[in-house]
Write a structure and sequence with these properties.
Number of helices: 15
Distance between the termini: 51 Å
Radius of gyration: 22 Å
Number of strands: 13
Largest sheet: 8 strands, mixed
Strand order of the largest sheet: 3-2-1-4-5-6-7-8
Helix content: 25-40%
Order of helices and strands: HHHEHEHEHEHEEHHHEEEHEHEHEHEH
Strand content: 15-25%
Shape: elongated
Structural class: alpha/beta
Bound molecules: zinc ion
């Protein structure tokens, strides 16, 4: 463990040393930190370049791919002379050129349930630069089991998302956001969808920023928030996320205790979902219902449950009848959905999002939480 910088490092990082919140102590922290980048493609490229330049002491890279011509439009770690060669060799050469003070460690393998824990255990923070659901679930589960922060990023055409999952500190995990892997064919493949080349530059840089904030312990790490960027309207939107008590990994009664499971061992499928489920707490719902502008509140439980106790303004639409009721619901108003504890309403929210409703939120904890916080 280094406790100070060499004179060459002081010169190199002088613009960091000028920032009071970084300074020499912060730069030494960066020097002693380690980050694992899963993927050296579109998101991994800018993230790795900035983290190396910033002086993060040890960078691990996992990738088994070779550089292809079609990568060069967005994967800025790689250049023409590396086409046909392993991405990791290309990445290592470029990153060592950017900063020879950084240790670049190469894991020239596919990140799988067999090697994930062993590789990730060697690093402080994980950055998800993958492009498929199985790797994302695997990265999430690995980070959770090792109690390491995961910096998430995803891109699609002109839109990107980023966030930090660290349920061992606070907030949800990726599975709380997406309880089950979308069915194959329900989201377009990466080749079909496409992505504007500059977009991963923005999202990957945000991932590097969050990792550096985590190391320096400065600012606010957006635990429980997803930052969504729309390149066409130049807008950022912050979506509030809540830990799902029913989450199979970080919930109250988890049934996932290792990295081998249906999602992490599935074959690759493309990974951007625009149907991110937003949720609100029962306290927030109470405030909304007391306020002047009210959305629509839907109770998706069964009639006998509704008869026992219900929220006054809630409209009963049992989950199985929801498909028949779609036409009666407005798309231009906020819709809040609740059930007993949040499971059925999560399925209802996902269904509504998939059917073109954009202002839908899940009431976290459902009727149980509503009655408990009365
Ligand atoms: Zn979770």
């Amino acid at each position: 463990m280094s406790e100070q910088l060499s004179s060459a490092e002081r010169l190199r990082y002088s613009r960091h040393l000028l920032i009071p919140a970084v300074g020499e102590a912060g730069q030494v922290r960066l020097k002693n930190a380690s980050i694992l980048l899963i993927g050296t493609g579109a998101l991994g490229s800018p993230a790795a370049l900035y983290l190396a330049a910033a002086g993060v002491g040890r960078l691990g890279l996992v990738d088994a791919d070779v550089v292809e011509v079609s990568n060069l439009q967005r994967q800025i770690l790689h250049g023409e002379s590396w086409v046909g060669k392993p991405k990791l060799e290309s990445a290592a050469a470029r990153l060592r050129e950017v900063n020879p003070h950084v240790d670049i460690e190469l894991h020239p393998v596919r990140f799988t349930a067999e090697n994930a824990l062993e590789i990730a255990a060697q690093y402080d923070i994980l950055i998800d630069g993958s492009d498929n659901f199985p790797t994302r679930f695997l990265t999430n589960d690995t980070a959770f089991l090792l109690r390491k922060p995961l910096v998430y990023g995803a891109i699609h055409r002109f839109e990107g998302q980023t966030g930090v999952f660290a349920p061992h500190i606070a907030g949800p995990c990726y599975r709380c956001l997406l309880p089950t892997m979308p069915a194959a064919g329900s989201v377009p493949s990466c080749q079909e969808a496409g992505v504007l080349g500059v977009l991963p530059g923005i999202i990957g840089s945000l991932q590097a920023m969050e990792a550096i904030k985590l190391i320096l312990e400065i600012g606010t790490v957006p635990l429980g928030k997803l930052t969504c960027f729309d390149g066409l309207t130049s807008t950022f939107r912050s979506i509030k996320l809540h830990r799902d008590p029913l989450c199979r990994l970080c919930g109250d009664q988890p049934d996932i205790h290792g990295v081998h499971n249906a999602e992490t061992t599935a074959s690759a499928s493309c990974d951007f979902t625009s149907t991110i489920m937003e949720s609100i707490t029962t306290q927030e719902l109470r405030k909304l219902l007391d306020g002047p502008v009210q959305g629509i509140l839907i109770d998706v439980r069964e009639p006998d449950e509704y008869a026992l106790a219900h929220i006054e303004t809630a409209r009963l639409i049992p989950l199985k009848t929801l498909p028949d009721m779609l036409a009666s619901l407005p798309k231009d108003r906020e819709i809040h959905v609740h059930c007993k504890s949040g499971g059925r309403s999560a399925r209802a929210v996902t269904f509504l999002l998939e059917n073109g409703f954009t202002q839908v939120k899940n009431v976290a904890g459902g009727m149980d939480a509503w009655l408990a916080d009365k």
